[in-house]
Amino acid sequence: MTASAAGKPGLMPVAEALARITSGLTVLAAENVAVGDAVGRVLAAPVAARRNQPSADMSAMDGYAIRFADAPELPVSLKVIGESAAGNPFSGAIATGEAVRIFTGALVPDGADTVVIQENTTREGDVVTLVSHTAQGRNIRKAGFDFRTDAQLLPAARRLNARDIMLAAAGDHATLSVARRPRVGIIQTGDELVYPGQGTGSLADVVVSNVYGLAALARSVGAEVVDLGLVRDGMEETRAAIRQAEDMGIDVLVSSGGASVGEHDLMAPALKAEGVDLAVHKIALRPGKPLMFGTGRRMRALGLPGNPVSAYVCAVLFLLPILRRMQGEEVPLMPTRPAVLGAAMAANDMRMDFIRARLDFSDGLPRATPLPTQDSSMLSALALADCLLIRPSFAPAAEAGAPCEIIPFNG
Questions:
Q1: How many C-beta atoms lie closer than 10 Å to residue 32's C-beta?
Q2: What Enzyme Commission number(s) appear in the record (predicted)?
Q3: What are the two backbone dihedrals, phi and then psi, of residue 134, each rounded to the nearest 5 degrees?
Q4: Which of 15, 28, 132, 259 could form a disulfide with 290 if both were Cys (CB 3.0 to 4.6 A apart)?
Q5: Same domain as 151, residue 110
Q6: Distance between terminal CA atoms of the chain?
Q7: Is 304 within 8 Å of 311 (Cβ atoms)?
Q8: CB contact set of 170 (below 8 Å; sequence gap of 6+)
């Protein structure tokens, strides 16, 4: 095990842990999904347009399609010879002195090069009079105005949002090639744990919460999540849960609890007994020092602390990069943003701190103010936080207004 930057054996720097945890990751196989079901998925291949958009010259307004040469001076009267509506184009061509009634989204008739909006005309019967000047070519969206056939619309490795889905559909794609969803299995260990609403009434009961937060985080980056249940404190029970995850084809097994070194902390020995090679265990990190990570025959295992805040922070730092990289998404391992301190901070020790903080966007860079309670069991404080405020190992004391780095919780 690598010594920390502080020289203390057994504590691995966060950056080294991140590098080890994400090394050797391969992108999951691609699959085709319906374009309407692809939001939140990561493209496995670029998306190119299969047609021009628009496919032909189309009217941008309701009005009249004319030959600009017929309107050198105003007013001028033209004969209306037909109508062009979206989906029902005019079948002929416009000759000298003629006009076609046209509607937004309709094909511009042959011979026309300008659309005059209806507010700039008057009409009696089949005669329209142009009363206000319109520049040549006005109010026409030319073929390929938005994009042309074979133009790249979306790059590979892009996580698709609603706007991307609209663009791909407009490019005539009924299906898209995306990375398979990672399968995440979650187990939480401890004899004291009960599911919400299923307690025994004993004061020793601890209502499980980690599994729900971890599942929500994993789903937020496109993963498929399987709750593998609560695992009692026993070596055989723990090993059986690990084997179950492998048998189910889980890509990443996430455990919460049992990651430390007490008599009831069985996750590390159970993982080793099931052939998982632990490359990371004990990080110079606060909260989350006991975190562990290893690779097995068919899956990766991320062992998180049992304290709820520690589990959540470690999942943000380590689980999300794993899942994003497995889908081919090209993102920083630690997506930080600049901010300034909202309060003075004392000097830090050897462990890199990830402090729950509120953000104030009143002016300039966001201002990050630590919450008064930083205990790793306090979910009420975590729910109030907007970000993680990063304090590097051995950071000197800093005054309010000093620059800092944050990881926002909402993008």
A1: 12
A2: 2.10.1.1
A3: -130, 130
A4: 259
A5: no
A6: 33
A7: yes
A8: 53, 146
Q: What is the pLDDT of residues 108-154, one digit of tens each?
A: 999 999 999 999 999 999 999 999 999 999 999 999 999 999 999 99
pLDDT tens profile 366-378? 999 999 999 988 9
pTM score of the predicted model: 0.87
Q: Compute the distance between CA of residue 238 and CA of residue 187 in angstroms, rounded to an integer.
A: 9
Helices (H), 125-209: 162-170
Chain centroid to CA 140: how far? 37
Question: Where do we find the tokens 């104030």?
Answer: 360
Buried b / exposed e along 118-153 (16+ C-beta atoms within 10 A):
beebeeeeeebebeeebeeebbbbebbebbeeeeeb
Helix (H) or strand (E) holding 73: none
Burial 191-218 (b: 16+ CB within 10 A, else e): ebbbeeeeeeeeeeebebbbbebbbebb
CA nearest 242: which of 190, 297, 191?
297
Domain-located, residue 7: no
The reply to whether 36 and 175 lie within a common domain is yes
Q: What is the C-alpha R_g of the chain?
A: 31
d(CA 36, CA 162) in angstroms, rounded, equals 9
- The amino acid occupying position 341 is L
